[in-house]
Batch of 4 targets.
Target 1
Amino acid sequence: MPLSLEYTKISLDVFKKINYNFGIAHEYINYGLGYKADKKFDLAIQSFNKAKFICEKLNDTKNIAHTLYELLETYN
């Protein structure tokens, strides 16, 4: 899992440098999935909420739904 999170960090840094919000949101979703798999639920929830906030600004309904689903799964 640490390698997966490292690649997510690299991707997030690239997307931030080019200011690509869709990619940034996607990487926060990846962070959330990684943290959830690693049972770091507080970090997963934080990551999914960051992704949801960005998706709402982009009006990206598909990924809003995805993050809400992942939040639900994390809370369960």
Note: Helices lie at 2-17, 21-37, 41-58, 61-75.
Target 2
Amino acid sequence: MPHVLMSCSTVAAGTGMMAAVTPLVRALAERGLGVTIAGPIGAGEAAVAVADAVGTNVRPHGPRTGCGRSLAEFRAALADVKQASWDDSRSFVHVHGVWTAANLAACWACQSRGLRYAVSPHGMLMPEAMRRGGRKKRIAVCLAVRRNLERADVVHVTSEAEAHSVHAVAPRSRVCVVPWGVEVEIAATDNTPVHRHGPRQALFLGRLLPLKGVDDLVDAWAIAKPSNWKLRFVGADPEGHSAALRHRINAAGLGATAFVESPVDGAEVRRLLKSVDLLVLPSHSENFALVVAEALASGLPVITTTATPWHELNARGCGWSVSPTVPALVEALHDACGRSMQDLAEMGRIGSMWMREAFGWDSIADRFITDIYGLRL
């Protein structure tokens, strides 16, 4: 039986990487592939759980801290490749990420052992991401990353914009565009407006970073001042920006209508999406923005920016794709928040149908098997 090793830069539950990888693993296992997820976790983190995926196991490394962490992760990733089941010559290594010691070790091990492998950069090579820590990343590209990408059987990207970013770093890499899917059970089946007491709710769901446009959203909300609406920021705070975000909210006089909340994952994400009326992702850079697909599948209209690959929102009538500027966000908020619950529900219904038809895991998993792994089951 073919086996796929998912060698990840993190296997921590609640991360964006695992939000993409976990449903892929389930879909592959349902199609008869053996799958192993391996990678590091940090102190206080829990490994992602995929117990319901037949034939799947998770092999977390750590938690480790200190100066020996990178070396430990490197050695663990080498061991993962060595220990994986290669009884079937069609087996494959799928490396998720490009920068960490685990990523570098997995690619090197595949090259040295003559194993087939793919790399998914997960947006790490997009221009905005490359500008952060630029000098170190340029050195890493010259020393290892370019070689790892160009020697891979295929580099998996989720949009044409991400494909361009990969070719800017590794011109000779073989790139294949396959989007992430949406789990079928997330898709809305009943888009009747939910009549709740209190204000209607707009949601930002993602990492609380300036790159995600959270500061712009506060500024736009302060100008738009939608009546009988509240704004919720829900997500992880990897760089400690939440304190500055709360200060910005209070300075703008929005303490009664805008709130910063703790992150959620798994089934909690689905319940959260079902409890609000609108998703807003004003990001400055996204390779795919899985949260947009999840929101649409849940029957939510979406406001996002042209810096994401969701340019079809306007034409399909299920959201707004606007320039990543405060004035453009203000205009979109005026339009969205001024609509009736029935109008927004109808937009959500359209988006849900789109996701079921184009991004369901049944078809997306088959594309991974054939286009990324080169398998015929």
Note: Confidence is low (pLDDT under 50) at residues 185-189.
Target 3
Amino acid sequence: MSDPTNLFPCPTVDTATVEATGEERREAARIRDVSVVIPGDRPITAYIVEPLEAPTGQAARPGLLFAHWFDTEAPNGDRTEFLDEAELLAARGVTSLLPQLTFPWTADPTGSRHDRARVVAEVGRLRVCINVLRSLPGVDGARIGVIGHDFGAMHAVLAAAAEGDVRALVFVAGTPRWADWFLPFWPIDEDRLDYQRVMRDVDPIEHLPDLEDTKVLLQFARSDFFIAAMTGLELRRAAGEAAELKAYDSEHDMATDDVRADRLRFLEEALRYPR
């Protein structure tokens, strides 16, 4: 399989600029509405959520990137999905970046060549966001975690593999392959095997083995209409026996309290920040 660093190229952080478009202060967090401007590409709208208090040392804080799920009917099917969680984490001294994803949010899957190119581009944009997160004042670039749900989880795996030094990954209710979603739910007029063949090198399951030095938590629902119960086992086998696999009495939205509690526990242990 191709080296993910080369497969999913991204501009260097020096070429991206962050422009603030709004700010809100809450009890323990500052939430900045920003636009990450990338030369030659569309800007990425995002939230930066950080503690109100200044860091106590040079690069003292862990940094988290949250990649949201796809649900065009849900009020949180966008970058707001993890906003409350990021605010909670800010009270524990963590800085988070929550970008708005674009594929397939703003463009339908239509065929393997198009879809592969869109996945590669989306992962490159997430890599830009990870590097912007590393560059924020007070963030420890060696303590970066990536959390993704649904399509966000699938993009997140690829971005973490391409970066190579992400400390922790939480994969929530995603599938091993893009074809698992795109072929059943979009009218793609292409032979199934041909589609899978073209998409294979950008499938998340192909790059989970690249995360040798990354702590991995896989979270799945027992009552998920979209994802078969065995999916978690297939992904854990690819990730290695050190990966944690947890199943919950939840549906695909994974909105139960125990899902969040296990995720916070895992991140606390992997990134070493106080409870």
Note: Residues 4-271 form a domain with the Rossmann fold fold (CATH 3.40.50.1820).
Target 4
Amino acid sequence: MVPVGVDEFECRWQSTPMKIQKSDLMRLVEQAAPGILDWTVGFVKAVIIDDSQSEPEMDAVLAGTGVLVAAGGRHGILTADHVIQNLPKTGPVGLILLGRTGGIDHQFVLEMDFVQKLTLGRGVDESLGPDLGLIVLPAKDVTRLEIWKTFYNLTKRKAKALSIPPEDHAISWVISGLVGEMTEKMTPRDGMKRFSFKGICGPLLVTSARKDTTFDYFAAEVNCGKPFDLPESLGGCSGCGLWQLVLDEHAGKWTLNEALLGGIAFYQSALIDGRRNIEFHGISSIYRNVEEALAQG
């Protein structure tokens, strides 16, 4: 995701920008990636590709990305509201589980009849938002998921996320999500179709921040397309996390303090000169609106 010719990164919307060399940033992204992926899931739904037979032929398609979150003893999947609305209202939805040691060859099914679907915000202009939703999970699904994954505790990190001043820490940003364009069909096994779902986890440039009466937002710039050896579209990343790498610097050496969830993606712009703008819900939206909705029930 690194823009060609860019050797330094900074959060340009901050009043006191902090800079970091690209080589240092990529090393720190690699350190943070296993934890970030541990909190990340993808949604898979079945679609009919041929209904000319008595039993329609089905394929699996990527339907978005989400972040496993917890607050007040409850657990859920945080994503864009339009992702939730495009999932089946009832029946099974597959979850892609990314692990600390890579992908997991599995079938994890979430029954939509037994989850609680919350629209936290939905506007009329998809490019402006709000577009934020939460799938609250029943205890049995939480127990099953915790075999493979961990949940990002919003309550535990709320005070820190809302209080870090820009001048105290350099905050660099990472996007992590599944990409539909990167889906590959695998060799069938036991008569069943199989698919490989892949995505991205890399740095991007946060270029601006804004607020309305209820939510806050970030805009970021990402590279796309053949010149960068990246997908043309980030379709499938809707609902994915924007992560703050909170860094410490001592004697010219950067170290990773913590990766904090700082945004949820909901919109990508048209492709212009190999780049797209991505719109995210921001820190306040997550640690106030989402945390309250999940913790208070």
Note: DSSP finds five helices and 19 strands in the chain.
